[in-house]
From TrEMBL:
The gene is gcp. Its EC number is 2.3.1.234. Binds 1 Fe(2+) ion per subunit. This is tRNA N6-adenosine threonylcarbamoyltransferase. Substrate binds at I136, V137, S138, G139, G140, D170, G183, D187, N282. GO terms for cellular component: cytoplasm. It is found in: Cytoplasm. It comes from Galliscardovia ingluviei. Fe cation binds at H113, H117, D310.
Length: 342
């Protein structure tokens, strides 16, 4: 039999995306973003994002089919992110996917967006070894996950107790006057600064909290420490060494993420770490992961950027995995879940 061919639909946040995956092959991939519309508000406005999804949904799906030279009839199943994400945004994507499934008489698979970020790495690196660790880092998530079976058994090893890493970068960036999302600006300036210029705490690395949460993260203290330092310097009339601030922040966050991810692999005797989420574009994190990975003999699978940020391919690929594993489709009255657990 031919490998399943799945249309994947993504609308959890500010990207309306559709893609077609057959087996482990990406056939088409279309992404429309409402990011520009949120920039002047300094963050994603759910109401604006939902409206943008309602507008872009059909054009994006049509483009994905058109690029693949296919019609809905040629698709085996439709997969859609049913959570976690912004409720209004999820409602648009899931309702649209249900309508398509009903009209074309195709099975529907509501999938977990975070597991999609892991699944998508198969497009570039192939199937997972029997045991894999995953580090998913973006503006919305920071999680360390154990992948036993991508379709049925992914377990949380650790997660952030407060802010996501990208969120922390975006908040500090705002303080420094960079436009939203500020993560990439911090990255660029960090390359020019001294990573040890100021002491930025890493959060949950040592002490009692660290022992209780060996694989959890905390970034709100990191943000507060940088904010307080900048405030004090400004009050004393000192000029803020922006490059040094960025470098110190980036070093602190990248180092704790990479160290914990690689330690989790070593502890569990796992030799493959897959990475995903928009923050995995961060050059300091990529360098730290490569360095710690090499030192400990762990293969670090860092996908190209278009597969790291939110897209439809991650949804379609996980849909393929669910079909291959013999999982039942979702009913057409399946709910959305903005806080969907794994
Ligand atoms: O996955 P994504 O596109 O959207 C979600 O948050 O789900 O990730 C966006 C996040 C933002 O916080 C952005 O600032 C951060 O990833 N980001 C970066 C870099 N590129 C994107 N942060 C640091 N360095 C980068 N190069
Ligand atoms: Zn995401």
């Amino acid at each position: 039999a031919q490998a399943p061919r799945v249309l994947g639909i993504e609308s959890t946040c500010d990207e309306t995306a559709a893609a077609i995956v057959q087996g482990r092959e990406l056939i088409s991939n279309v992404v429309a973003s409402s990011m520009q519309e949120h920039a002047r508000y300094g963050g994603v406005i759910p109401e604006i994002a939902s409206r943008a999804h309602a507008q872009s949904f059909i054009p994006v799906v049509e483009q994905a089919l058109h690029d693949a030279h296919l019609t809905l009839d040629d698709i085996d199943a439709i997969a859609v992110s049913a959570g976690p994400g912004l409720a209004g945004c999820l409602a648009v994507g899931v309702s649209g996917a249900k309508a398509l499934a009903l009209a074309a008489n195709k099975p529907l698979y509501g999938i977990n967006h975070v597991i999609g970020h892991i699944a998508v790495t198969q497009l570039q690196f192939g199937a997972f070894p029997e045991r894999t660790m995953a580090l998913i880092v973006s503006g919305g998530h920071t999680s360390l996950l154990e992948v036993h079976d991508i379709a049925r058994d992914v377990r949380v090893k650790g997660t952030t107790l407060d802010d996501a890493a990208g969120e922390c970068f975006d908040k500090v960036a705002r303080l420094l006057g960079f436009p939203y999302p500020g993560g990439p600006y911090i990255d660029r300036h960090a390359r020019l600064g001294d990573p040890h210029a100021l002491r930025v705490p890493q959060g949950l690395t040592q002490g009692r909290a660290g022992a209780e949460h060996p694989f959890d993260f905390s970034f709100s203290g990191v943000k507060t420490a940088v904010a307080r330092w900048v405030e004090q310097e400004t009050a004393q009339g000192h000029e803020i060494p922006v490059d040094d601030v960025c470098a110190s922040l980036a070093y602190s966050v990248a180092d704790v993420l990479a160290k914990k991810a690689i330690t989790a692999c070593v502890d569990a005797d796992v030799y493959t770490l897959v990475v995903g989420g928009g923050f995995s574009a961060n050059s300091q994190l990529r360098a730290a992961l490569q360095q710690y990975g090499e030192r400990h003999g762990i293969e670090v699978r860092l996908p190209e950027l278009k597969l790291c940020t939110d897209n439809g391919a991650m949804v379609a690929q996980l849909g393929v995995n669910l079909i291959e594993a013999g999982c039942a489709p979702s009913p057409l009255d399946c709910p959305i879940d903005s806080a969907m657990p794994l």
